[in-house]
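Reviewer 2 asked us to include a model.

Predict the structure of this chain.
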Amino acid sequence: MQVSVELTSELSRKMTVNIPNTVLEEKINSRLKSLSRDVKIDGFRPGKAPAKVVARLYGDRVKNEVAGDLIQSSYFDALKQVNLNPVAQPQIYPADGEGLTYVAEFEVYPEISLEPVKQLQLVRPVAEVSEADLDAMIEKLRFQQARWQAVERPAQLEDHVTIHFSGETNGENFTNGVTENFKLLLGAKQMIPGFEDALLGLSAGEKKTFGVTFPDDYHNPQLAGQAAEFSVEVANVEERVLPEIDAAFMKAYGVDSEDIAAFRQDVKESMERELLQGLKNKLKHNVLDALVAELSIALPNALVEQEMEAIMRPYVEQAKKAGSQADLSAAADLFEKQARRRVALSLIVGEIIRQNEIDADAGRVRQYIEDLAKSYESPEEVINWYYADASRLQEVRQLALEDLAIEWVVSQANVSEAYLSFSEVMDKQHIEA
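Predicted model (structure tokens):
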């Protein structure tokens, strides 16, 4: 077998494979001989038909079958011979030449140098849970357990109001008559600009008619930019009543005690676990950003296209469930940008793991799962859930490998620290990998 390779671009290869005619003929004759023992041909007893007759009747079919089998088996041998590793299935087509000659076109993985990692400038975020952060969190927990109490005073910001209302534009009603018992939190900006402001100062039982203008980018094009007149009657005004930090309140958050200090410590420990994960996520994002920026690599088109399909698939499936077709052309550039980033990071992180022979052993995987389980009410159930499925364990192992790769980058790069507040860490978590 003769193999030659032509570089058609930085990552594209055109591999020509030639299998000698002697090999092809030998395979064809062997296949015909085997076929002649089983095939039934009119005028001949089974297995007694002359070879020429069998070849005349079945020669073309056998030749195609043998050629297909030879291409399939020789393709991988040819790759080993020239030491190439395709990223996806090749395009294979016949070519002129003696014997069996075919061409396989494909892309290969890029060569990645990790030398630039030593010049990376990384920022490691640092933060702690302060007493002010703890007080703010407990106040947030109180808001979660708040109840609403009717009041007779005029409505103000953060009150909950129940209204009946109707709206008109150009003299035509667009609210299907009167919308009744509509609940609204003043200041939440649920309604178009100006609507909630008009309700401030109104008490239960009062009515008001006022005008506002729909934004130009309003989701309903028939109302966008239109002046509207609303007629509103306030049915009820309620204020938020926060609970006391007592035994019942603390029990709702898993602390079966009347010791406020113990409750505060429990909340603080939970915040510290979240903060630790938040800091880890921000550092990881900083590392990934730096790797993409500094390690410029060529990306195989096949991998980018596959990743774009994966990104778009949920939108396509969602549209299909709704009985429509997803038009994603407007977001094509964004999807491609995301896909290119993900492919680049996958290749770079994979190369870091390969070159440094990084491995996540069973202990590391166990620790990763236990850390994940700490934020749940029943950690042991979460741990058992992961260990009940090999595919779940493999997913965790991959995440652990990625973390080890990030640790390696940090150990090689130039790292400085930046102090952040708890809210800065937790309120700006990056979603994109």
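Residues 2-107 form a domain with the Alpha-Beta Plaits fold (CATH 3.30.70.1050). The CA atoms of residues 191 and 390 lie 48 Å apart. We have added this to the supplementary material.
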